[in-house]
Design goal:
The protein is built from five helices and no strands. By secondary structure, it is an all-alpha fold. The protein has one domain. Helix 1 packs antiparallel against helix 2, helix 1 runs antiparallel to helix 4 and helix 3 packs across helix 5. The longest helix is centred in the middle third of the chain and has 38 residues.
Amino acid sequence: MMATSAQQASQDERLLAAVAHSGALLPFLGFIVPLHIWITQRDWSKFVHFQALQALIYQLAMPSAFSVVYLLGFWGLYGTMLGGLPDGLGGALPSGLLTLRCVLVGMILVGWGLTLLFGLLGASRILAGRDFLYPLLGRWLVVYMEGSKNI
């Protein structure tokens, strides 16, 4: 799987990797923690290199997805307001757009919860000496890194 596993990594390596994953606790700024660790420690440890890079990509991808969903929700909110204008101030809002808005807000909340959950899960598994891969991203990154001989 990876060049260095969590069991083979030193306590310092595991701590740095756990801190990189814990960056998820900082909403929309969490990527700064794994970015700093990856830039400063990538040549020191292959384990830290992989875990920090994995956390960095994950913590950049999730807020980016939130932003897209938020913009769709923003459009949905104003779409519902504009949809009620032809009927006057007392007109009913189109239920389809209002439902879309609620679904998008729900997706943002679930996504944010998953970001926190996987960040904390990654940190706790690494500290316990167990390997951690984010769903979808982790396996892809292992294949990519082994293919490019960087890890």
